[in-house]
Write a sequence for this structure.
């Protein structure tokens, strides 16, 4: 994920409620963001493809394609941070959003100032990683990750599984491959890869389990490796 070449951050904002869209867009413009507003899910997917935004805000209940479907579609071609904006406030909805690739979840009615603050927190984290992580390619005997292209190749045949991983799974795998022999606690993985999600440490287990199953299908077993009582390491 690369931020825009200019200082202005590009945001795709998908919301079909005109009043909500107008109110939040006023705050976004005031912050200097470039905003592309979509009033249905199909437009949202098209705008993300066309404009390659730095940040995405998705309502869940939208015409033509709901926010869940939009999130699933765009994760095939972008790892830009996604904030879900919705009236659905159950824990199940929140956990589902985070597990399927969202970076944050805001419940309506909301305070626009809080939304802006959350966006800045996520963008600061992203800029920090872009600035500090100058190395672009990581490779082990069984894994190859190219940060510039977000390509993930697995196994001796170098099977490309880039489109199979959620953004969270990609971040976890990238975090572990930077220090393949180091054991990370759940809390450390949570802080590095899901800092703004509000999720608990057990959520890490769920992401690791799904990641491991996808790697197993490509011929890599027991990666990431569980270290009982401590956490996880790449184990490759």
């Amino acid at each position: 994920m690369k931020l825009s070449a200019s200082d202005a951050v590009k945001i795709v904002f998908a919301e079909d409620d005109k009043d909500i869209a107008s109110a939040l867009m006023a705050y976004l413009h005031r912050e200097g963001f470039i905003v592309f507003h979509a009033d249905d899910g199909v437009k949202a997917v098209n705008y993300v493809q066309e404009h390659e935004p730095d940040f995405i805000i998705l309502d869940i209940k939208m015409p033509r394609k709901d926010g869940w479907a939009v999130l699933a579609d765009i994760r095939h071609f972008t790892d830009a941070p996604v904030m879900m904006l919705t009236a659905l406030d159950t824990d199940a909805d929140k956990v589902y959003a985070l597990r399927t690739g969202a970076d944050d979840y805001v419940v309506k009615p909301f305070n626009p100032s809080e939304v802006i603050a959350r966006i800045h927190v996520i963008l600061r984290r992203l800029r920090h990683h872009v600035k500090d992580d100058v190395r672009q390619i990581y490779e082990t005997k069984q894994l190859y990750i190219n940060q510039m292209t977000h390509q993930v190749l697995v196994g001796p045949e170098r099977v490309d599984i880039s489109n199979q991983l959620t953004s969270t799974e990609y971040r976890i795998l990238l975090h572990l491959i930077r220090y393949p022999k180091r054991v990370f606690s759940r809390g450390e993985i949570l802080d590095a890869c899901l800092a703004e999600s509000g999720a608990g440490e057990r959520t890490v287990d769920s992401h690791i389990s799904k990641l491991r199953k996808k790697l197993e299908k490509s011929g890599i077993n027991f990666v990431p490796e569980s270290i009982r009582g401590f956490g996880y390491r790449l184990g490759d």
